[in-house]
Amino acid sequence: MARAHARHRKSRSPGATREGRAPRRVVVTGGAGFLGSHLCTALVDQGAEVLALDNFVTGSPSNVAHLLHDPGFRLLRCDVTDFVHVPGPVDLVLHFASPASPVDYLRMPVETLKVGSLGTWHALGLAKDKGARFVLASTSEVYGDPQCHPQPESYWGHVNPIGPRGVYDEGKRFGEALTTAYRDHEGVDTGIVRIFNTYGPRMRPHDGRAIPTFIRQALLGEPLTVAGDGAQTRSVCFVDDLVRGVLAFAASGHPGPVNLGNPEELTVLRIAKDVLAAVGSASAIEHIALPVDDPKVRRPDTTLAEELLGWRPRVPWTDGLARTVEWFGQASLEDESATVVGGGAPRTA
Ligand code: NAD
User: Are strands 237-238 and 133-139 parallel, antiparallel or unpaired?
Assistant: First the structure.
């Protein structure tokens, strides 16, 4: 499979940078995670040389198994909160390392703050050292439980710094401030993307996010656990659309922040019902308590992405859901340990 993949690599570059220079060598932190692995695949497909750095706390080498024998790809086990050293030139650093699901960051609060702060600092240092463009994977969580709907990039957010989600939200907000400081004071060509909920193949069945949880429960014939009455909304973007947006943004040279997400708003209850239909499951829906500080609404204003990048999501929800359900149908749904999927590095203190 890896060889076939290598054979089909296109010579086209993943897109010119602002100066028209193609990013030949790309470092992807968190490259063995859900989004990171799809980014690595797209970049290798487009002819880039990719180095993925990952400590496997929530990702797994199995996510990039199809790339491991490709001459354009290398995976290095590395905790980016430690020193990051990469020999040779680097054109682009995509900083995607961070636990991303509430289950993960509540289990690893200090690690999450460290990767949002120290990890971002080290990844920025790498970009500065190499004269590379840097893109921070920020999040719609910087808007917190928003008082403004939909959320444009100009909205400052409504975040509880000492609530349980603060470790993730504030880590990302600090990362944005640090990225901006490196742009303004250290001369680094930085960019910030604020990613809204994204779904697709390679999400972990036990990562706690609504779509993989519902699909796992539906496939196993268990009740689908909907938080509250399910009237809260989410906007969900299929991973292929998101990857296309991130690479277009990386090539644009724009500082951002730019929202990337699907503006189609769905209630959590509707997502659960659509999963039941897509799986063909007769599972019941069970209502459980709402998590603390759970956002009631979430929808990106994607005007800037459309104007700047000509980007908008193309994959309809029902198609993306069908592709995700198909992938989960072939994945292992077994209970995972409380720590790591696919084995992993010891957690930092
Ligand atoms: P993920 O958990 O699947 O991937 C994160 C990866 O980072 C994993 O492979 C993990 O092992 C790695 N990692 C974590 N800490 C690390 C460290 N200290 N050193 C090296 N590697 C480390 O999550 P994802 O959904 O792919 O999210 C990727 C990025 O995108 C994250 O920064 C997340 O905050 C951001 N994001 C994702 C979404 C989404 O819907 N998936 C939404 C908003 C933002």
Answer: unpaired
Please classify residue 11 by burial: count the beta carbons closer than 10 Å to its beta carbon, then call 0-12 exposed, 13-18 middle and 19+ buried: exposed
Residue 288 has pLDDT above 50, yes or no: yes
Pairing of strands 265-267, 233-235: antiparallel
The Cβ of residue 125 has, within 10 Å, a number of other Cβ atoms equal to 18
> Among 280, 272, 266, which residue's Cα sits nearest to residue 226?
272
Q: Catalytic annotation on 168?
A: yes
Residue 7 has pLDDT above 90, yes or no: no
For 74, the 3-state DSSP assignment is: strand
**Which mutation among 28, 98, 179 tests ligand 1's pocket best, with the greatest number of atoms within 8 A of CB?**
98
CA of 280 to the centre of ligand 1 (A): 31
Which pLDDT band, with edges at 50, 70 and 90, does 248 fall under? very high
Nearest CA, atom 37, ligand 1: 100
pLDDT in tens, 131-188: 999 999 999 999 988 888 888 999 999 999 998 899 999 999 999 999 999 999 999 9
Which domains are assigned to the chain?
Answer: 25-198+237-260 (3.40.50.720)
CB contact burial 93-104 (16+ within 10 A = b; e otherwise): bbbbbbbbbbbb
Alpha helices (runs of H) in 8-161, residue ranges in sequence order: 34-45, 102-107, 109-114, 120-130
Distance in angstroms (rounded) separating the CA atoms of residues 45 and 50: 10
Residue nearest to atom 13 of ligand 1 (CA): 97
